[in-house]
């Protein structure tokens, strides 16, 4: 059940896009915690619906909701106290990010935030962004102790110059969302996620553009699905949350880490000749202390909840 400390108008929340791996997992966890969920699916079809868990129709309502269709977003948000928003490129774009995707993501973010502003029951927005909206265009050489965290933003000109389209899109979309949230008085928090490690991860993932540079700079971070989902739930249920939260639970900063990731992306017949000889550890230059502090308390409460449930059996 939703914690009593969370003051909401209703126990109903909306997940958009619920057809993504993150979205469908969020739907499942929210249902397990006693929420009623509006699952907003951009591309309504059998494949998307198969990802959603079977349950009582009173607890789960599925909406065909295009982020570019203002009225369909309003329909999905009706009666909800929170929106969990993540953007998935239209099917015809697949994983391909180009210079036009930034405009697409900005329009989607603006449309959805405006719909939230017109929905009286919305109390909180959890906006899924990316670590790529934080890490690019900073000069680590200026200071040996310089670490990146959620206070930093990727440099838009840098992203454009080096064709880092995923970073550009995520940065501009998140900035648009924050500007509108402040203008409309909306309570928003963002999750700036590292690279999501999932079974369908492949080399075409746009996050990986500039992977070698991220590795050398000590900012190549990843996150597993369970941790990412828990982070979203945590920042929603904790009434003290604010601003941005950099979310990752692993950093790729050794040759062994890089090789294991490469194996996931494209299986290799054998390790490179220099693999075992290279014992370098790249200095980590990125911090997620803000989120980790929250997650410690969240995991403790989760453990206590499970122990209480076991005692009742």
Automatic annotation (TrEMBL):
Judging by the UniProt lineage, the source's domain of life is Eukaryota
An example Pfam family from this entry, by short name, is 3Beta_HSD
Q: Tell me a Gene Ontology molecular-function term this record carries.
A: oxidoreductase activity, acting on the CH-OH group of donors, NAD or NADP as acceptor
- Annotated ranges, domain 3-beta hydroxysteroid dehydrogenase/isomerase: 20-174
Family of this protein: Belongs to the 3-beta-HSD family.
Query: Which PANTHER family does this entry report, sorted A to Z?
Result: CINNAMOYL-COA REDUCTASE 2-LIKE, NAD DEPENDENT EPIMERASE/DEHYDRATASE
Protein name in the entry: Cinnamoyl-coa reductase 1
């Amino acid at each position: 059940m939703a914690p009593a400390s969370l003051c909401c108008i209703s126990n109903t929340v909306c997940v958009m896009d619920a057809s993504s791996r993150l979205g469908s997992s969020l739907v499942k966890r929210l249902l397990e915690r006693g929420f009623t969920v509006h699952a907003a699916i951009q591309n309504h079809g059998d494949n998307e619906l198969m990802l959603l868990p079977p349950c009582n129709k009173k607890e789960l309502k599925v909406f065909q909701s295009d982020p570019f269709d203002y009225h369909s977003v309003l329909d999905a948000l009706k009666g909800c106290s929170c929106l969990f928003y993540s953007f998935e490129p239209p099917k015809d774009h697949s994983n391909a990010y180009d210079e036009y995707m930034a405009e697409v993501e900005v329009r989607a973010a603006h449309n959805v935030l405006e719909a939230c502003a017109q929905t009286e029951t919305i109390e909180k927005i959890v906006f899924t962004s990316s670590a790529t909206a934080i890490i690019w265009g900073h000069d680590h050489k200026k200071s040996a102790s310089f670490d990146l965290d959620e206070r930093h933003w990727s440099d838009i000109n840098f992203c454009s110059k080096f064709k880092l389209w995923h970073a550009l899109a995520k940065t501009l979309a998140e900035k648009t969302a924050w500007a509108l949230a402040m203008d409309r008085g909306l309570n928003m928090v963002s999750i700036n996620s590292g690279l999501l490690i999932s079974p369908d991860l492949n080399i075409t993932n746009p996050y990986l553009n500039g992977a070698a540079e991220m590795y050398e700079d000590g900012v190549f971070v990843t996150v597993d699905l369970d941790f990412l989902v828990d982070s979203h739930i945590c920042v929603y249920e904790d009434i003290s949350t604010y601003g941005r939260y950099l979310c990752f639970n692993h950093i790729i900063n050794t040759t062994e880490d890089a090789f294991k990731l490469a194996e996931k992306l494209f299986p290799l017949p054998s390790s490179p000749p220099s693999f075992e000889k290279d014992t370098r550890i790249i200095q980590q230059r990125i911090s997620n202390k803000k989120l980790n502090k929250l997650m410690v308390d969240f995991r403790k409460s989760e453990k206590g909840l499970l122990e209480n449930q076991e005692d009742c059996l």
